[in-house]
């Protein structure tokens, strides 16, 4: 029996949003499987919409607000992360990318991660593989092989032979739980607020 924390990141811009709905479904599914294994689980939901101004200010100044600092700490100290973004112009939205831009390089090494996305049509479903996976490969996260995409009319649909959304959610959650239970990632992390090498006054290294 272990105490587990799952950080669920939602980059939806509207309230309510299908992105948050999918994030909640995935978080619930992962928590349910961990509980079935005898673990105690805490799910921490991080709405990036509520942190948009803080994220922008951090990009400009290199310093986080207390609210943003708390959100990043929840991510870095979690046993696993569920990251969900709407797809804009064939990729993740700017808010999603900006949040991960301000996380210290190396902080997500070997972190178990489940990737998911929402969009208007199933034509955007490949964005998980060609946009999100390269980002988390760069971050050296341990990403579940199954990503979950939900289009506007995808909730509960098995049209054209596509597995129903609940089935895909269950499969992805099971994979994430497997990564979490096998993970040897240390919770002794680098200080996320240490200034990286090459820091310049106008923001973190590499940001202009």
TrEMBL record:
GO terms for molecular function: oxidoreductase activity. Residues 6-154 form the NADPH-dependent FMN reductase-like domain. SUPFAM superfamilies: Flavoproteins. Keywords: Flavoprotein, FMN, Oxidoreductase. InterPro entries: CE1759_FMN_reduct, Flavoprotein-like_sf, FMN_Rdtase-like_dom, NAD(P)H-dep_FMN_reductase. It comes from the Bacteria. The keyword Transmembrane does not apply. PANTHER family: FMN REDUCTASE (NADPH) (PTHR43408:SF2). This is NADPH-dependent FMN reductase. It comes from Amnibacterium flavum.
